[in-house]
Every structure is written in structure tokens, then in C-alpha cells.
């Protein structure tokens, strides 16, 4: 067998009365972390649930480690660890009970690692789930997924609602996962900072469509904000993939998603004096992309 | 694992440039001598808490600049160049001077005017 992708989706559709997932293509290779970014209701959770086989797609192809989902989902699930915010734990049972339960099902369960996580995440093992805080519940869910050491981790908003210390601990654990080149992580978040730091691949989702999916370095590298001084009677030239351009008196700002030296050259040829060419954060890029995709309509 | 490098999210520069700077610094101060074997891309990513692809990019740029050499299957090494540390500092100086030239141009200063300004500054520094 040649290299199988960790996760592969092609042409996946899912129709609900008020929401629709449109023609989703996604590919995550082993050894990589993919950050899945989108506003609330973009379809991140739906996509993850389809990958897990919890929801069936109306059409399209879903594959996890070469196993078709949902047809071969049993084989696929042994190797996927899934955690989401609304994952149900038994309220009357303790975290320790849940750990033993997982251990009895999954031969890959790593006891030492589970105990290490318990202390790193600062979760009391002997407290009933109903007595845990929101953050502790989220972390308990993550612990149960991580300690199985599955080949693929599918985490829906793993850092939402966590304090900065806990968030850092969680991100550190995710990075540690891909120290092993055979493993992969797909996690969704609306915290672009978390995603920017640890992801190799980034996918933007909005209104049920993927609006961009690329490796992070290419992503960050192609976006720039250019500020320049425009001459009197300046006529803005045609530039590639400009999401916004503003002229305020003599000062102008152009945001582009296809930056190259030819852009500053064109501006200079039109008499502009370049003041600065700035990198953008993932958050700024995301907002630009969502705005322009909503304006233009084209995906 | 102790973090190898400390990167800053509030530093406006991209992460890969920060990694390049820290590697250059290790070489400049002599911690990493010519021939020194660098951590693998994955090791450095895990210990620095950044994505693998970011470290890969930093290594590629350093390789293009000839600062490090990668041997298939063996890993990456600091290039065997005499006085590499010194050379890197000179590169840095040259970069700053080029920036000064760019700014002078944007202010409409000619070469002679820039040289006069530099001489004035040197005189001031020397008389301190």
C-alpha cells in the first residue's frame, strides 16, 4: 500500500432544512495538523461528525486511513479519537471510572500517559462528572481521547472555554501527537491564534463551503497589506486578488491574497510611494476571505 | 522536552523568520559550530511548539542561503564555512545598511547626502 491519507473527503454534501454542506473536499496527510476555522454555524461540527460516521452524508466520498466511511466505519473508528464540547460523559460517574471504561475497550489505552494528563490538565479523578467545571469537563473529554493514542485525533473546539494555561497544555499535547509521523490531528477552532501556531494545514469554512484550504506557510505568505501614498488624481490599477482597497486622502491601503513583487511594481509605476508592506495575522486573513467570499459569492 | 527556541506571537514577523534568526544567533555566538547537527524538523517543531511546516520553511531558507546543509537521510548540519559566525554578523550589518539606503531614497536623499549623514553620525559616536 502506498501512502494513504489520514482523512480524505471529496464532493461531500449534506442537506438540512436551514443549513447545507456544499461539495466539501478535504485532504489531511499523516504527520500533519489541520486547523479548521469558521464562524459559528459554518459546518465544522457537521463535517467532523460525517468523518466520524456519526452522520451520513447525502453524497460524496469519505475515507479515513483508507477505510470508507460509513461502510467500513468500525475499522476506521479504532484509529480515531474524537472529542467535542457536547460529548456526553456519565454525570454520576467519576473521571476515573471513565478512564477504566475506556481502558477496557481500547487495547491501545496508555495508563501512564492518562495519569500524566490527569495532573497536567489538573482534573480530579475521584470527582463525579456533575461536580466538574465546564473547563474540567472539556479537558476530561480530551484526556479520554488522547490517552487512547489513536492514529487520528478529531477534536471539535478543543480549546474553547479553557483558561490560557489549560489552552497551552492542550496545544502542547496536540503538537506532541505529530512527533509521530504516522499520526494526524484535525481540530476546529474559532481561535485563530491557536490554529496559526500549531497547524500545518489550514482550512477556512463559511456557510457550508470550503473557501480556502492550503498549507499554512503558503497561506500566510500570499497575503499582504500594502500602504502607500497616492499621487493626486490617482487611478487605482487592476491588481490580482484584491479583497479591499481604500483611498483616504492621499493615503491608500490595499489588501491582497496573491502578493508578489509585481504588485508593488505596478503601484510604483502608477506613481504610488510605498510606505509599508505588512504581513497579516491569520485572523485578519480569515476575516478578509470571509468578507470577500460573501460579497463575491464565488467559492 | 525543554523548548529549544522561544518565539513570540506579538512579534510582527512571521514565525519562520523568528526561527531563522534564533538559529543564526546560535551560530553567531558559537553555540552551534560548523558541522553541528541540527535537531530534526519534527523534533524542533515539537520542542518549540510550532507547526512542522514552519520549521521546514525556516530550514529551507537557511539551506538556500548556504548557512546549513541537508544530507538525505542524515539530517541538517551547520555549513562547514570558516568564520561563519562572523560572516552572518556582516550579513546582518549589510541588511541594516540596505534598509538605510531604501529609506534615504524614499526621502529623496542622494548617495553623497547619505554618506555625509553617516560621517556626521560616526563623528558624533567617536567623540562620545
Provide the gyration radius of chain A in Å.
22 Å
Q: Structural class given helices, strands, pairing of chain B?
A: mainly alpha
Mean pLDDT of chain A: 90
- Per CATH, the superfamily of the largest domain in chain A is P-loop containing nucleotide triphosphate hydrolases
Helix content of chain A: 25-40%
User: Largest sheet of chain A at a glance?
Assistant: 6 strands, mixed
Q: Largest sheet of chain B at a glance?
A: 2 strands, antiparallel
User: Rough shape of chain B?
Assistant: elongated
Question: With helices defined by DSSP (H or I, 4 residues minimum), what is the helix count of chain A?
Answer: 10
Number of strands of chain A: 14
Low-confidence stretches of chain B: none
Residue share in helix of chain B: 55-70%
Measured by DSSP, the beta-strand proportion of chain A falls in 25-35%
User: Most extensive interface, residues per chain?
Assistant: A-B, 25 and 18 residues
Structure, explained:
The complex is a heterodimer of chains A (299) and B (128). Chain A is of the alpha/beta class. Helix content of chain A is 33%, strand content 28%. Chain A contains ten helices and 14 strands. In chain A, a hairpin with a 2-residue loop joins strand 12 (242-248) and strand 13. The radius of gyration of chain A is 22 Å and the shape is elongated. In chain B, helix 1 packs across helix 3, helix 1 crosses helix 4 and helix 2 (41-48) crosses helix 3. Chain B is built from five helices and two strands. Chain B has helices spanning 15-28, 41-48, 52-64, 84-106, 111-126, and strands at 68-71, 75-78. In chain B, a hairpin with a 3-residue loop joins strand 1 (68-71) and strand 2. The N and C termini of chain B lie far apart (47 Å). Chain B is elongated and about 55 Å long. The interface between A and B is medium-sized, with 25 and 18 residues.
